[in-house]
Amino acid sequence: MTDTTQKTASYTVPGMDVADGAHVAEVLQDRLNALNDLHLTLKHVHWNVVGPNFISVHEMLDPQVEAVRGFADDVAERIATLGSSALGTPGTIVSQRKWDDYSIGRAPAIEHLGALDLVYTGVISDYRAAIEEVGKVDPVTEDLLIGHSGQLELFHWFVRAHLENAGGQLSTAGAGSEKEAARDAS
Fold it and tell me: Which intervals hold domain Ferritin/DPS (predicted)?
């Protein structure tokens, strides 16, 4: 039987103390959980989007899925580099996440995009908090997260472009849940 619990590091990268390395790895584990959840959510939307804009949204999401999967790999490898264990099991995602499961099933493209607006907002906000936290002790991890954040923000813009009117207002402004955002977008 394989042990899938988080191991306390007995070493880390040169120039950083073990406690700081373990703390950065904990911050990264939360990002790993979010990235694994995000790429599964994006694929779920890819499979369940319907309506007149089906093909454009369906095809827009696959490159996002692949990029986010790559980000997860980057983060997991950084956790290992820091001397900790990267946990990538479904049970880890479910038990450690601080957000609810994606709540929209088969639905029109615009509804999924409305819900994804909130998903990306949460992921990006948490990324920015992680950047601030790890930057105090680990500029290498900070740089990694900044690079990911730029791409996540670009993907968020792709989603929001469908939700914005000519005056620059988002149809999802003020929505407090994915279902509200989906409703407001439609």
Answer: 27-165
Q: Which CATH superfamily is domain 18-185 in?
A: Ferritin, core subunit, four-helix bundle (1.20.1260.10)
The answer to whether 32 touches 110, Cβ cutoff 8 Å, is no
Q: What is the pLDDT of residues 2-14, one digit of tens each?
A: 455 556 678 999 9
* 144 φ/ψ sector (left φ>0, alpha ψ -120 to 50, else beta): alpha
Whole-structure pTM value: 0.93
Which residue type is seen at 22?
A: A
The pLDDT value recorded for residue 1 is 47
What are 167-175's contacts with CB under 8 Å, separation 24+?
Answer: 170/117, 171/114, 172/114, 172/117, 172/118, 175/114, 175/117, 175/118
Element (H, E) at 2: none
Cα-to-chain-centroid distance, residue 23: 20
Spatial separation of the C-alpha atoms in residues 155 and 143, rounded to whole Å: 19
Tell me which H or E stretch contains 62: helix 54-81
